[in-house]
């Protein structure tokens, strides 16, 4: 690097003499050790089988460890500004090697997707294309404190980071690379103030630190052709940052959104899209990719085999030799991303959810002691929801069975008028699909701490409330407040005869997301008369849904439970 620091890397080459079109993986796990002893035995954060498929397709692969991670030089800092310039320097260096054609693409998901955004924001000349999946762009709003509810995911993530550094240390020891092994082991042993859990706890509101470590500005500078992948029910990085594609140039950006898991990126179906994209922009093949619809939504995505429910890894433990198959694909026209498609449903007395507006003087829903939401366990995703029993005391609102099909997609907003008998309360809104037999399928969750309800009016829209995350605004017990609960993007087909339901709970664990309990958690009253309406806003489009309803519980990350009809 320019300051003399060295980044660890490893390169794998396909059969042949080269030069080769080259793809770079750049993260803080064990990217610099691809091909090493641990990697070859499956002890890696990378996908060995995705890498093998890319090699067999003629690409050279280069894995690079970020500054301050694994055996690379430097101090670790979460979302540090140097990630971008370092990544750009690595891209340029790779492009100058005799075994490279000089056109570099970047691939991988999660931290590997974050590394792509940092690098592409620097606009390195040799960067031909990026394909980020499942990223974090705004660390505060996306995962650190979604809706203002403090999330302890970062501490769990830190343990996983240390585990992957252990993989790299083992490889270094086998290779007798003692300096690298010592660097890694010393780094693993340190759990000081720079660890992600400590840092995120220290910055629960927007401040100079969180602003400096957001990637929003970097994303806004990206000009490289981009294929963005997002999974709506991702409970590692979360689904909110999938909207980053809206900040990129429309003519060179493609996106795929689907129900699914954190590592659906390695699936055979996504891989086919990755190959077409890289073949066009990195190899230079005229394969027609540029004519691909820019925004595609996969509905009813399921595996061709049983869902084991284990952490991500839905494609046969990342091998990708099974198929993730969408029931159907909807190519989103630009007109379907306007406010003209907003669908408003009003919360009404007796748990109704209706397009009819509230009556003057309509009584509020009585005080309710909100139970905790069913725990959704990422290591066995379906059990928490499948085994839960809908509590009779919980506030729930349901539509009548639909007379027509409704295709719903994008973010949503639950706009509430509430009063609470304490100085604060945390809410988790769960949106579900209820089939004619009463089976209730999980679709998406939204979170809000009432004291974090202040909005940025310039960045908020009808469907996306943008929370300021600055000074908390305590609630006066018993006094009416207006608030908006952001519901991150999702896509779901509500077929004729089915219904849509929302539940209000206290937050519970979702995957590896675990939330700090709010010491002030008063009972809640939902107001919904004509003067103080409460309503749900979604985006829908009239569409002739071409498939029969999937079996309850068959969709990726959309578990089903017997519910109330």
User: Could you state the CATH homologous superfamily of the largest domain?
Assistant: Alpha/Beta hydrolase fold, catalytic domain
What is the CATH class of the largest domain? Alpha Beta
The class by helix and strand makeup works out as alpha+beta
- Alpha carbon gap, first and last residue: 62 Å
What's the story with the biggest beta sheet?
7 strands, antiparallel
**Which ranges are low-confidence, i.e. pLDDT below 50, for 5 or more consecutive residues?**
306-322
What is the tally of helical segments?
12
What is the arithmetic mean of pLDDT? 89
**CATH fold-type name of the largest domain:** Rossmann fold
Describe this structure in words.
This protein has 565 residues and is α+β, with helices and mostly antiparallel strands. The chain folds into two domains: 9-138 and 218-233 and 242-332, Rossmann fold (3-Layer(aba) Sandwich); 339-562, Galactose-binding domain-like (Jelly Rolls, Sandwich). The protein has twelve helices and 23 strands. Strands 12, 13, 14, 16, 19, 21 and 22 form a seven-stranded antiparallel beta sheet that branches. Strands 1-3-2-4-5 form a five-stranded mixed beta sheet, with helices on both faces. Strands 15-20-17-18-23 form a five-stranded antiparallel beta sheet. Helix 6 (153-174) runs antiparallel to helix 7. It is globular, with a radius of gyration of 24 Å. It starts with 8 loop residues before the first strand and ends with a strand.
